[in-house]
Design goal:
By secondary structure, the chain is mainly α. It is 75% helix and 3% strand. It has a single domain (3-202, 217-432), classed as Growth Hormone, Chain: A (Up-down Bundle). The strands form three sheets. It has a two-stranded antiparallel sheet. Strands 3-6 form a two-stranded parallel ribbon.
């Protein structure tokens, strides 16, 4: 461990390195920009650009998919050439440019390209830096990722309320521009907080030039293959999950009674339900896990992911009944069905997404941790792209059949993970003790 990293790890605030909070607020503002733009995207395409619902769904799925495809290359660039810090800065600049370009109608597709490339450079490398803040075997790591995940969702909660309202009520381009401002704020926080961050892998290699990348051991290869298997189930999970900005957004806009105390709630606000619930439920879920751990009953990381898929299945089964009622006379149904859907969908996410991020930093070999994180996000690319494809069935199937289809897909993912637990047991036994890159 270098003296610099030791100093960063000893500089604590509320029991965690101060760098965690720099990364927390950087990611919060980046997610504010991303979800602020995403909250408007499907409405902007269907209402302003006048794309068909099917075409809009395909573009939405391709965009949200590609933002998870490019992190593989962003991780590769960071591990081999730039390091995590410089790659994060590059990504933030590209995304800020992309958001501001969205304010120009003629630059719609170039703007999406800037956002996709910027996200690819930013996303895997901000997450891996959380792991660098903690020494090997530090039990605070999982809790740190839960705190970091709250930052993600604090930005995701605020942005539909602010950017969504501004875009829907005052003009699409105002909402997109505000998303760009959010990205700039995140960059400023990151740049001013550099002294609190741990050295990344390339910085450590330069400090210790005698240290070379050694061939992967048998155990390391085994752990990588275990992550690849879990990535396959991750694809299935996100294909069912990632309907919030697509078909569930259309359900909120067209099929939901949004009137409350004589006022109609903007449809984009419902996309704040999930991040709001994550903020509320995260301490409850982590406390429950601690309660289970004291009784030696806490599920393994992979088992938690399996339970996450089951909760996602329940969230869509909840929607079957209101979908049947809507089919009878086409009358918009109560908004509380969507709230109940979001509750179980969020619990499912908490059991899968932050657990997966933490698991990657535990199991991935140090010299390729950002690339492996990119592989994890790559699985989300395929899931998001499939989500866009599934969204094309929204107008081809009855609403209840559509939700049953999503529930079955989530159930298959959950059962698949539980079936794979025994074969993967040896590789995943490292998930509570695997360490960071050399430090």
């Amino acid at each position: 461990m270098t003296e610099a990293n030791q100093s960063v790890r000893d500089d604590l605030l509320w029991g965690h390195p101060k760098g965690l909070y720099i990364l927390f607020f950087t990611e919060m503002w980046e997610r504010f920009s991303y979800y602020g733009m995403r909250a408007l995207l499907i409405y902007y395409m269907t209402k302003h650009l006048l794309f068909t619902q099917e075409m809009s769904s395909q573009i939405y799925g391709l965009y949200t998919g590609l933002v998870y495809f490019t992190p593989f290359f962003g991780g590769l660039i960071a591990d081999r050439y730039l390091g995590q810090r410089k790659t994060v800065i590059l990504g933030g600049v590209l995304m800020a440019v992309g958001h501001f370009l969205m304010a120009l109608e003629a630059m719609f597709f170039p703007a999406l390209i800037f956002l996709i490339c910027g996200n690819g450079a930013f996303k895997p490398n901000i997450s891996t830096q959380v792991g660098y803040l903690y020494a090997p075997g530090d039990s605070r790591r999982d809790r740190a990722f839960s705190i970091f995940y709250v930052g993600i969702n604090l930005g995701a909660f605020l942005s539909p309320l602010v950017c969504g309202t501004l875009g829907e009520l005052y003009g699409w381009h105002y909402g997109f521009s505000l998303a760009g401002v959010g990205m700039v704020v995140g960059l400023v926080i990151y740049l001013t907080g550099q002294r609190y961050l741990a050295s990344d892998y390339l910085m450590l290699k330069k400090a210790m030039p005698e240290k070379e990348n050694l061939p992967l051991t048998r155990d390391e290869r085994s752990r990588i293959w275990a992550l690849v298997v879990l990535c396959l189930f991750n694809i299935i999970f996100w294909s069912a999950y990632e309907q919030q900005g697509n078909t569930l957004a259309l359900w909120a806009d067209e099929d939901t009674n949004r009137r409350f105390l004589g006022w109609e709630i903007p449809a984009s606000w419902f996309q704040s339900l999930n991040p709001m619930l994550i903020i509320i439920l995260t301490p409850l879920v982590t406390t429950f896990w601690s309660w289970q751990a004291k009784r030696n009953r806490e599920p393994s990381s992979a088992a938690k992911m399996g339970f996450g898929c089951i909760f996602l299945c329940i969230s869509y089964l909840i929607m079957v009944l209101p979908a049947k009622d809507y089919a009878v006379d086409g009358t918009p149904v109560s908004m509380w069905w969507l709230v109940a859907n979001s509750l179980f969908l969020t619990i499912g996410e908490l059991y899968l997404s932050p657990v997966g991020l933490s698991l990657v930093t535990k199991l991935a070999p140090g010299q390729m941790v950002s690339m492996i994180m990119g592989v994890w996000f790559l699985s989300s690319f395929f899931g998001n792209y499939l989500a866009g494809f599934l969204g094309t069935f929204w107008e081809k199937m009855s609403r209840d059949s559509f939700f049953i289809m999503l529930a079955v897909i989530a159930l298959i993912a959950g059962l698949g993970i539980f079936t794979a637990l025994k074969p993967l047991k040896q590789a995943l036994s490292y998930d509570r003790e695997r360490t960071d890159p050399p430090a």
